[in-house]
Amino acid sequence: GGQKCFQGIIDCLYQTIKSEGVFGLYKGFGSTLAGMFFYRLFYFQIYDFLSLNRKKIENKFGKLKGSQFILEYFTSQTASILTYPLDTIRKQQMVVRTNENFVKLLFNAIVQRRFLELFRGNMIKFQEGLVASLLLRFIDEFMKKII
């Protein structure tokens, strides 16, 4: 088996700062922000688009019970799937402790591996998306009561 590298969180922080400096603690921070930005961008754009066109969709397919929840769940899952490659590169950047540029890592990952391998592990996001869609549903109902 493998040996432990660190004796606890304090030891981990100490060794990281000692070997890489304070900025070593922030490896992957830029890619985290990029991933969050694009996730929210897709999330709200898809939600707004489908919300504005909801009447057209209901007229074409009929009104479904729970259609609002389906809309929110679809929104969170689609945004998650579209941004998952960024999340994969972010994890690689933090685990491998590399200083390579995020864009270069993404390009290398697409070239060296197959593109679909960047989506490995995406299934757990469907469960996380369930929570996100429930939260969006709660916020939507809350805003209806306020306005």
Mean pLDDT: 80
Main β sheet profile: none
So how many helices? 6
Shape: elongated
What is the helix content?
over 70%
Termini separation comes to: 59 Å
> What Rg is obtained from the alpha carbons, in whole angstroms?
20 Å
The helix-strand sequence is: HHHHHH
How big a fraction of the residues is strand? under 5%
Tally of extended strands? 0
- Spans with pLDDT under 50 lasting ≥5 residues? none
Secondary-structure class: mainly alpha
Report on this structure.
The chain is an all-alpha fold and 147 residues long. Helix 2 packs antiparallel against helix 4 and helix 4 packs across helix 5. The longest helix is centred in the middle third of the chain and has 30 residues.
Short synopsis of the structure:
By secondary structure, this protein is mainly α. The chain has six helices and no strands.
Strand-helix topology:
Blueprint (H helix, E strand, L loop, with lengths): L8 H12 L8 H24 L1 H8 L5 H30 L5 H11 L10 H24 L1
Helix pairs in contact: 2-4, 4-5, 4-6
Keywords summarizing the entry:
147 residues; mainly alpha; 6 helices; elongated
